[in-house]
């Protein structure tokens, strides 16, 4: 179960529910990354970029669930660490984070438990991303889903 949870976190790191957080307003003048941000400026934090920052994650483009193993849970708790914020951070984070993670874990676990999922010709899945307000794939996902148990079991 620990590795499964690490896998879900890694999926959320690479493919957050939304690439941008809700807008925030700067409460004072400041400098961020060499840019001057004046008080009142509306900012849209780029979760997609923050969670792929090589200063935070080694090999940020690689799918490595192991990066979430052996850490203090608080370090990788969504919304409490700036390197991993799939649901936002602080007071403005998603109020449904805990529920969303529980539903995600349950849904994925049940799919894996109940079905064999393959791709046409067992080809690797193309993970290139398209451009949208939410993260979409550049090419549609094509999979075959078949029950793990014989069909007579479902009658």
UniProtKB/TrEMBL annotation:
Gene Ontology cellular component list: membrane
Top-level taxon: Eukaryota
Name of a matching Pfam family: p450
GO MF entries: heme binding; iron ion binding; monooxygenase activity; oxidoreductase activity, acting on paired donors, with incorporation or reduction of molecular oxygen
Protein keywords: Heme, Iron, Membrane, Metal-binding, Monooxygenase, Oxidoreductase, Transmembrane, Transmembrane helix
SUPFAM superfamilies: Cytochrome P450
UniProt: heme binding residues: 94
Compartments in which it is found: Membrane
Cofactor annotation: heme
Predominant localisation class: membrane
Gene3D superfamilies referenced in this protein's UniProt entry, alphabetically: Cytochrome P450
Family: Belongs to the cytochrome P450 family.
The protein, known as: Cytochrome P450
Species name: Cuscuta europaea
The organism's taxonomic lineage, starting at the top: Eukaryota, Viridiplantae, Streptophyta, Embryophyta, Tracheophyta
């Amino acid at each position: 179960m620990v590795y499964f949870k690490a896998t879900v976190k890694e999926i959320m790191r690479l493919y957050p529910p939304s690439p941008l957080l809700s807008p925030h307003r700067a409460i004072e003048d400041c400098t961020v990354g060499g840019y001057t941000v004046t008080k009142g400026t509306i900012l849209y934090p780029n979760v997609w970029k923050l969670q792929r920052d090589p200063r935070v994650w080694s090999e940020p483009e690689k799918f490595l669930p192991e990066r979430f193993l052996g850490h203090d849970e608080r370090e990788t708790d969504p919304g409490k660490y700036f390197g991993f914020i799939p649901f936002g951070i602080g007071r403005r984070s998603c109020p449904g984070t805990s529920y969303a993670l529980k539903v995600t874990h349950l849904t994925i676990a049940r799919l894996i438990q109940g079905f064999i999922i393959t791709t046409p010709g067992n080809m690797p899945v193309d993970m290139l991303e398209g451009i949208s307000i939410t993260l979409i794939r550049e090419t549609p996902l094509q999979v075959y889903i078949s029950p793990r148990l014989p069909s007579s079991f479902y009658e």
